[in-house]
Amino acid sequence: MSALISDRIDDPQVTGAWELPEEFRLLRETVRRFMDSEVRPLEQQLPHDAAGLPREQLIALQDKARRLGLWALQTPEQFGGAGLSVLGQVVVAEEAAKCRMGAFFPALGAFGGNPPNVMFKATPEQFAKYAQPIIDGTATKAYTAISEASGGSDPARAITLKAVREGDHYVLNGTKMWTSHAENADWGVVYARTGEGRHGISCFIVEKDTPGLSFRRIGVMASFAPYELYFDDAVIPAENLIGAEGKGFALASDFLIHGRILYPAGPIGIAQSALEMACSWAKDRDVFGGKLADKQGIQWMLVDSEVELRAARLLMYQAAWNADLGKDVKVDASIAKLYGTEAAFRVVDRCIQIHGALGLADELPLERWFRDLRVKRLGEGATEVQRVVVARKLLD
């Protein structure tokens, strides 16, 4: 039996299953070099809680990323993007998050070019007018507005923003909550109710200067704030309906599931950076006649963090791999999102504890990461929602 096991371990096809394919390792190294040479030097010039680069610097940084092929990575090749697989996307996202602003501005926004995924189901005319300029880099990113105050974790039931057809247009009334990038985007994708239940939700393209649309910044504990959107008799042309009326939730479902696979990549990347900082600090810090790293309590905190990050990364890779194979990944995605964001938060919390009071100071990125990762436990469906998804599968 031992000989058979040894033979399989030596088989490159078997051992390779535990490693990223070479193309993704090379991609990871390219992103890592870009972060070291281009992103972090710029970030050092910004305030601790900065939320993005000045526009001129951002454009210059994005130009450098485009020359390396690090642009529109999630956009299929048929639409002019890089068409990166889901596994490739999580590899890039993890590396791009390894900076102070990485939770909400991975690589400081350098790797842009991706319109909201639902736009890939839009008409050619809609795509050319709204999505193509984002892919070309001539327009800013757009927002997606699904959540509402009445229950953001179950949008299919909680959407109350009403859209009423009147001739050649719809009239929208109601509000949206927790919408990222809303005020700075040229347009957005908004989900509204046109009927009852899951089959009564429709998806609309809404331009920023639409009469009757206004924005309010929502202050939160994170360094990056979302917005509330108010629709007061806002008139939307019927030609801005994406897909058929009542099919909005069906359009969004697959993209929401894949988004949950990608979502933990950022927190995992941040937590990995925090762990490396904690290891370095523990080896240098003198306490009670020795190094902090000599204390078993500290060693176990570091080990627990390493174990959790390895597990989180493998769960994410598995979900991405299965998605690329075309499998049903609803449960895989929920497990990856649940474990990845929770584990990353615990790791950063431990790393702050290891640093002591310095971990709370804005001299280090740890306290900002802690606030940002607390938000990540709620985004893309709270931890409890992911548990509900997995529980339903287990008890089905």
Automatic annotation (TrEMBL):
SUPFAM superfamilies: Acyl-CoA dehydrogenase C-terminal domain-like, Acyl-CoA dehydrogenase NM domain-like
Listed GO MF terms: flavin adenine dinucleotide binding; short-chain fatty acyl-CoA dehydrogenase activity
Claim: Cell membrane is one of the keywords in the record: no
Keyword terms, alphabetized: FAD, Flavoprotein, Oxidoreductase
Cofactor(s), names only, from the UniProt record: FAD
Gene3D superfamilies with a match to the protein in the record: Acyl-CoA dehydrogenase/oxidase, N-terminal domain, Butyryl-CoA Dehydrogenase, subunit A, domain 2, Butyryl-CoA Dehydrogenase, subunit A, domain 3
UniProt domain Acyl-CoA dehydrogenase/oxidase N-terminal: residue ranges: 22-137
GO CC aspect terms: cytoplasm
EC id: 1.3.8.1
Gene Ontology biological process terms in this record: fatty acid beta-oxidation using acyl-CoA dehydrogenase
Residues covered by the Acyl-CoA oxidase/dehydrogenase middle domain: 145-233
Gene: bcd_3
Domain (Acyl-CoA dehydrogenase/oxidase C-terminal): residue spans on this chain: 246-395
Protein name: Acyl-CoA dehydrogenase, short-chain specific
Transmembrane segments: none
Family: Belongs to the acyl-CoA dehydrogenase family.
Pfam families hit by this protein: Acyl-CoA_dh_1, Acyl-CoA_dh_M, Acyl-CoA_dh_N
Superkingdom of this protein's organism: Bacteria
InterPro entries named among the record's database cross-references: Acyl-CoA_dehydrogenase, Acyl-CoA_Oxase/DH_mid-dom, Acyl-CoA_Oxase/DH_mid-dom_sf, AcylCo_DH-like_C, AcylCo_DH/oxidase_C, AcylCoA_DH/ox_N, AcylCoA_DH/ox_N_sf, AcylCoA_DH/oxidase_NM_dom_sf
